């Protein structure tokens, strides 16, 4: 092998390492920010919006942000939940409990959530319920805690009817690439068992179909590959990098570069798709 070829291989490997290190750093930073937001909200009983605003001022230094919050008497306080929304929360909470939900949970759960979706005219099989849960930053599947419910006030929702009127705009907001990425990455954490680092394939596939349908020509091929060929849980790295693949690689794969630092599962999917003639 010639020295020039060895140099090229060395360069590609070093580039891959740099990309991987940068990705790890980005993930660690993101996780620390999420932890800071959660801790800030637990201490101050504020919304995610207010927590993020204060933490950004102090580069996510929790103590400084909390001190500033308690010393601040400005207009950054969360909006108060309306009486109608307080009553709605109790209504849907009781429906959930009556239909088999956990009576110890102070939340809208299970059938209570389904009743809310029915009342605001939302199909539970479409993407809108997931968008709603994302806007509230819900952490548990099919569950809106009393704290998360208060986010509706900051979103300008003082009644269930207002939620219905806001949803179309929230959906349009996903036309922005950065906003969609935030939503897409939220879904991974929402779908993930909090004790696990990955999502079982049988859980990941329905979410892939729901959020990428219409955005990626080969989404059904990807899901079929995951279910029947790869058969492995989906990691956060694979989840994130697949969105980059969808955004940056043409559906006919003409600009696909196998020397880029794609996860192995994506490289193997491309080979699988080529064998099928999927262009």
Automatic annotation (TrEMBL):
What are the entry keywords? Ubl conjugation pathway
What domain of life is recorded for the organism? Eukaryota
Keyword rRNA-binding included in the entry's annotation = no
According to the UniProt record, one GO cellular component term is: plasma membrane
Q: Do the record's keywords include Ribosomal protein?
A: no
Q: Give GO terms: molecular function aspect only.
A: cullin family protein binding; ubiquitin conjugating enzyme binding; ubiquitin-like protein binding
An example GO BP is: protein neddylation
- Domain (DCUN1) spans 80-274
Q: What does this protein do?
A: Neddylation of cullins play an essential role in the regulation of SCF-type complexes activity.
For this entry, the protein name equals Defective in cullin neddylation protein
């Amino acid at each position: 092998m010639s020295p020039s070829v060895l140099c090229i291989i060395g360069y590609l490997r070093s580039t891959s390492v740099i990309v991987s290190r940068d990705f790890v750093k980005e993930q660690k930073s993101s996780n620390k920010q999420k932890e800071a937001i959660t801790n800030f909200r637990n201490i101050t009983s504020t919304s995610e919006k207010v927590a993020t605003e204060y933490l950004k001022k102090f580069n996510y230094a929790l103590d400084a942000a909390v001190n500033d919050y308690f010393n601040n008497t400005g207009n950054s306080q969360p909006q108060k939940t309306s009486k109608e929304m307080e009553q709605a929360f109790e209504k849907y909470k009781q429906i959930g409990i009556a239909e088999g939900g956990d009576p110890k949970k102070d939340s809208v759960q299970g059938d209570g959530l389904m009743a809310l979706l029915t009342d605001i005219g939302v199909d539970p099989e479409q993407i809108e319920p997931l968008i709603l849960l994302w806007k509230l930053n819900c952490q548990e599947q099919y569950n809106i805690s009393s704290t998360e419910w208060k986010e509706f006030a900051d979103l300008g929702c003082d009644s269930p009817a207002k939620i219905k009127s806001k949803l179309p705009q929230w959906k349009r907001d996903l036309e922005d690439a950065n906003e969609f990425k935030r939503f897409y990455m939220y879904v991974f954490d929402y779908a993930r068992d909090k004790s696990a680092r990955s999502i079982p394939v049988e859980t990941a596939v329905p979410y892939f179909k729901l959020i990428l349908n219409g955005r990626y020509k080969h989404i059904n091929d990807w899901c079929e590959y995951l279910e029947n060929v790869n058969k492995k849980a989906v990691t956060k790295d694979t989840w994130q990098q697949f969105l980059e693949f969808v955004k940056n690689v043409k559906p006919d794969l003409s600009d696909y570069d196998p020397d880029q630092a794609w996860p192995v599962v994506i490289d193997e999917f491309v080979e699988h798709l080529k064998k099928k003639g999927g262009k």
